[in-house]
Amino acid sequence: MNESDMKQGRIVVGLSRFLSAMLTPLLMPTYGVLIALWCSYLSAYDMGLRVTVLLVVSGITLVLPIFCIATLHHFKWISDKRLIDRKERLVPYLFAFLCYVAVAYYLWSRVHMPMWVVMFCAGGALSVLISAVVTLWWKISAHMAGMAGVVALIYNMHVLTTEAFNLIWVLTVAVVLCGLLGSARMILGRHSLNQVVAGAVNGAVSVTLMMQIFG
């Protein structure tokens, strides 16, 4: 391999790492609620309320899981904060599941959000629970489950006619990012194609079922 190929390879790996970081599963609830609050009829809500809800969602589903993972790593219960080892994922996944449930309860009981928003978070909780069970035997992609869940949210916002404007371009960008993320996870050697596809199916089906049945 010549120097040019090595440089291109480093760039691809760097971009894959950047994409994986920006589209980490921990950020998906925040991205989803952001889309729900700014791209649906909920955009008519007071700005202060929407920002407060977004911050609470981020605190519960991003900050708390990061703290949990950091604590587990500090006490040597996990060897890597990226949870590369499948056997070390169970406890962080179960904690993330509880965070999703907490957010769904907060949106339902405290903020009185429409059920389709609550069910997006409930669908996320379901996909995390499925990932936690599957990971006992197989390394399913949590990144893809999270991203596909957001894609499903956007699609179902259109189906349920909750969108404030035509979301086709938002959906297109989300689908493209989903594909790029799957490629990035394989380039980094984190998952096989089957694991990427299984993760995407898990996230998309879980969110769609919850939003269509209960939303």
Topology:
Layout: H1 3-22, H2 28-39, H3 47-74, H4 90-110, H5 115-134, H6 142-159, H7 168-187, H8 193-214
Distance between the termini: 53 Å
- Multimerization state: single chain
What are the secondary-structure elements, in order, as H or E?
Answer: HHHHHHHH
The SS-based structural class is: mainly alpha
Instruction: Give the strand tally.
Output: 0
Mean pLDDT: 94
Sheet with most strands: none
- Strand percent estimate: under 5%
Count of discrete alpha- or pi-helical segments spanning 4 or more residues:
8
Report Rg: 17 Å
The low-confidence parts are none
Shape: globular
Helix content: over 70%
Architecture overview:
By secondary structure, this protein is mostly helical. Helices cover 75% and strands 0% of the residues. The protein contains 8 helices and no strands. The longest helix is centred in the N-terminal third of the chain and has 28 residues. The model has no long low-confidence stretch (mean pLDDT 94).
